[in-house]
Amino acid sequence: MSDSISMDLKKELSLFSSGISTEKVIVQLFEHEMYASEACNKRFTKEELQVLQARILSDDQAAVHELAMSAVQHMASIARSYARKRPSHVVTLAVLLSTGYFGLEHAARKYDASKGTFPNYATWWIHDAIKKEYLQHERLVRIEKDVLRKLSTYKRMRDEMLASGAHVTLSILAERMHIELEYAARLEEYANAQTITVHPSDEVQDNGGAAYQTLVDEGKATDESALAGSLQTIVKDCLRGLSEPERELLERFYGLRDGHEESLKEIAPAYGYTSRAIGMMRSRAEENLKKALEKRGVTLASLID
């Protein structure tokens, strides 16, 4: 076992020393894990499938992973096909492989042997997961263009009111622009301004705010009471812009769902990767989050404890 671990570490170090990008490292580690796994492309007998299904029904994650891995090469082929036909700097091959694996896990949990072979059954789930990933980012682009138009009007109106010495709140701006208060709050976050007075009646309620507070460093804010909620919303909005696997990974690692932080070793089984590969996925996810935050004028260093 120690020799195997040593060889894996040497492989990873050689990848880094050769200057290969994190994206390529993740893909190569995925392929290494895929072909090295005994469960890869495994064919089950009818009796073995029945045992696996019973374990899956009892919420055995190892059984889900074992069944998913039996079709992982089929999934990788589909993911590579999308990468060729629909190249994207956001939905990269590494994202497609992670998303495709999530599709496999969904299929494994719903699989019934009477519905045919697992790879054939899983095909629809793989395509569905990948298509949703593309749609999510395409939808975000369309929304951004619409927001930019509204943002221009919002900033002009706000600056004119401030220049005239008028009392400015989100409620007043929302009323004058004929938009919802929540939308005005979002525009304010995009504008990255700290001059708006946040009246208590303007606060937008968010039941999930407590968990996201773990990413907010209150000591960095110039006006903590006014900006904490805004920073939480910015972080959540930027997280929604990540791929589903990246978003879920960061949420679990930083305890953004229920306040419970999970280690890379605890998270790894859900992705079908080693903890080292998950560590690199986390680095890439944090880099993507950092870029999204910087576009809003917020640095990741000022948010992460």
Write the layout of secondary structure elements.
Blueprint: H1 2-17, H2 22-36, H3 46-57, H4 61-69, H5 72-85, H6 93-110, H7 118-163, H8 170-177, H9 181-191, H10 209-212, H11 224-240, H12 244-253, H13 264-271, H14 275-295
Helix pairs in contact: 2-14, 3-4, 4-6, 5-6, 5-7, 6-7, 7-9, 8-9, 9-11, 12-14, 13-14
What global shape is seen? Answer: elongated
Average of the residue pLDDT scores: 71
How much of the sequence is in beta strands? under 5%
The percent range for helix content is 55-70%
Our Rg estimate from Cα atoms comes to 23 Å
Domain RNA polymerase sigma-70 region: 80-139
InterPro entries: RNA_pol_sigma-70_dom (IPR014284), RNA_pol_sigma70 (IPR000943), RNA_pol_sigma70_r2 (IPR007627), RNA_pol_sigma_r2 (IPR013325), RNA_pol_sigma_r3/r4-like (IPR013324), Sigma-70_RNA_pol_init_factors (IPR050239)
Pfam families: Sigma70_r2
Organism: Candidatus Kaiserbacteria bacterium RIFCSPHIGHO2_02_FULL_49_34
Descriptive overview:
- With 305 residues, the protein is mainly α.
- It folds into two domains: 118 residues, Four Helix Bundle (Hemerythrin (Met), subunit A) (Up-down Bundle), CATH 1.20.120.1810; 100 residues, Orthogonal Bundle (Arc Repressor Mutant, subunit A).
- It is built from 14 helices and no strands.
- It is elongated, with a radius of gyration of 23 Å.
- The N terminus is likely disordered.
- One of its GO terms (biological process) is DNA-templated transcription initiation.
- Pfam families: Sigma70_r2 (PF04542).
- GO terms for molecular function: DNA binding; sigma factor activity.
